[in-house]
Amino acid sequence: MMPAPKSREGSREASREAEPLSVLYVEDDERLGRLTAQYLQSHGLRVSLCRRGDQAVAEVLRIRPDVVLLDLMLPGLDGIEVCRQLRKRLDVPILMVTARSEEADRVLGLEDGADDYISKPFSSRELLARIRAQARRAQGRTGPPTAQLRLGDLTIDPAAMSVTKAGKPLALTTFEFTLLRVLAERAGRVLGREKILELIHGSADEAFDRSIDVHISRLRHKLGDDPRSPRLLRTIRGAGYMLSPDAE
Prior knowledge:
- The chain has about 250 residues and is α/β, with parallel strands linked by helices.
- Helices cover about 40% and strands about 20% of the residues.
- The protein has a five-stranded parallel beta sheet with strand order 2-1-3-4-5, with helices on both faces. Strands 6-7-8-9 form a four-stranded antiparallel beta sheet, with helices on one face.
- Helix 5 (about 105-110) links the parallel strand 4 (about 95-100) and strand 5 (about 115-120).
- Helix 3 (about 55-65) packs parallel to helix 4 (about 80-90) and helix 7 (about 175-185) crosses helix 9.
- The longest helix is centred in the middle third of the chain and has 15 residues, at about 125-140.
- It starts with 7 loop residues before the first helix and ends in a 5-residue tail after the last strand.
């Protein structure tokens, strides 16, 4: 018996699944960029290199990668400004790469739209894991599809990776969406930073003092929550964060 032909839609889905993850690595250190690209390519990723910050935005728009690896110190335009410009145009996951160890630099990158960061010198295996994690979040693959979540005037659609408040769509980064979904699924419960990172498939090593705080602050702003007296996304001093069950 001849096998039934695949539907055209099924073929398109299979084709998308077969495509390797694409990464644009913006790095002015030619040797580091080349060696990192070789490692990622050896694990099935497709990597493009860009050496200047003032060329990075155009390259991202041209290539449309699944993930952007963005060095902080770049000629022409620094990584922070590149991140700001990218966030005005599209919601590609951005993984900031920095040689600086100060918390302020990491916080600044997160505040300006980066989804995650990794410090030099980094483990190639960790970098690969973080790239794949960001790609999964962007593609809605952090877990099995679930029904829409409705809390007051807030609607979260995990399948479509979309959020509306009072019927108006909110522009969230992939990390912000995942963070909000995790909190919404446990509305009324207090979650500490390490628990939040565990639930979004992060590493406890990422839980430096203000990383989650920065994402929460950005999320509050987009939700229209008063940062001085938040009623929707509340801080429970000494314990963590809680999303109000009524979300009004």
